[in-house]
């Protein structure tokens, strides 16, 4: 009798946990507030873009089927590129001159989540992008031969200093 009661209570607890998670009830996990994260697109670089090809990047959101990807052209027309993309990067090509905008949204089993942030990029086909100034450490840009010579000179100076100090001590 006690064994049957323990098994019954155990099953009741298990079912209670499953219902509270939304995996057995009719709600499914779509309406579970624990997974309602909105994807965040990362900035597109470089901008301006000169070849009309960009890569969209975002962090994966837990418990989604995939992502719908949207682009808005310079005239304001929005088009869905993918309905259910399964990944965290997407390459877009064939962009023409102008400012393009992109958004994604989560796709669940039966519905869509909220839209992500909007990322924009200006496309200038054949334009010139100026490289940023060189910010390297000046020592690391020296040729290896110069660094070796400086090390030898420094080691020689240290050796001469040690010899001079030890000879001075022996004269006493």
Overall description:
- This protein has 172 residues and is α+β, with helices and mostly antiparallel strands.
- Helices cover 27% and strands 24% of the residues.
- The protein has 2 helices and 7 strands.
- The model is unreliable at 2-35 (pLDDT under 50).
- The protein folds into 2 domains: 1-31, no CATH class; 37-132, Immunoglobulin-like.
- The strands form 2 sheets. Strands 2, 3, 5, 6 and 7 form a 5-stranded antiparallel beta sheet that branches.
Give the uncertain stretches in residue-range form. Answer: 2-35
In the CATH scheme, what's the topology name of the largest domain?
Answer: Immunoglobulin-like
Mean pLDDT: 74
Give the CATH level 1 class of the largest domain: Mainly Beta
CATH-defined architecture of the largest domain: Sandwich
How big is the Rg? 32 Å
- The N- and C-terminal alpha carbons lie at a distance of 101 Å
Class inferred from helices and paired strands:
alpha+beta
**Gross morphology:** elongated
Name of the CATH superfamily of the largest domain: Immunoglobulins
Number of helices: 2
Protein name: Fibronectin type-III domain-containing protein
Organism: marine sediment metagenome
Keywords: Membrane, Transmembrane, Transmembrane helix
InterPro entries: FN3_sf
